[in-house]
Amino acid sequence: MSEDLIPYFGANGRVTNIDRENENLRLDKVVYQDLNAKQKESYNFQKLSSVLADYGYTTYRMFDDYNGADLHAVRITGEVVKIQLKGRLTIDRKYLNKQLYIAFSDNGNWYCYPHDYMFLIITNHSEGAKQSGVRSIGHIPAWLKELLSEFKIS
Q: Which of 3, 23, 61, 73 is the most exposed place for a label (fewest CB within 10 A)?
């Protein structure tokens, strides 16, 4: 058999060969940094969905940021959690009082925290965050690591 052909069991149970060059399912891993913003959001949605599945959640992507949520996570018991997906630890006054969680990845670990709770913690710690009502943190500061560990999901 040629190296360019992949054995495949068709619907009729017969072995056929698939030409690798014409196969649609490509399994070349992507480089996250090479993705554009929309592709990164899709990538992160899939990664987070995989983590949440371990906790009994099915995720549904909201393409219109419905009430601030990028996705709804529905637990097997019926609870619905609204999640805003971010690339980093974030608070923003526009998310207040919407019962939102913020999910982000840091060095391969996923975190999912209640926004309003974290908003109070960060604005009480930082006068700049208190005045602006917004903070986006690229790395987890030492003072917040222990508290944030409570919300580590992977």
A: 3
CA–CA gap between residue 87 and residue 24 (Å, rounded): 30
Write out pLDDT tens, residues 48-94: 999 999 999 999 999 887 788 999 999 999 999 999 999 999 999 99
Place of tokens 């690339």: 87
Domains in the chain, start-ordered, CATH in brackets? Answer: 5-149 (3.40.1350)
- What is the phi/psi pair of residue 60, to 5°? -130, 120
C-alpha distances in angstroms, 20 versus 6, 15, 29? Answer: 7, 15, 16
- Is the CB of residue 140 less than 8 Å from the CB of residue 146? no
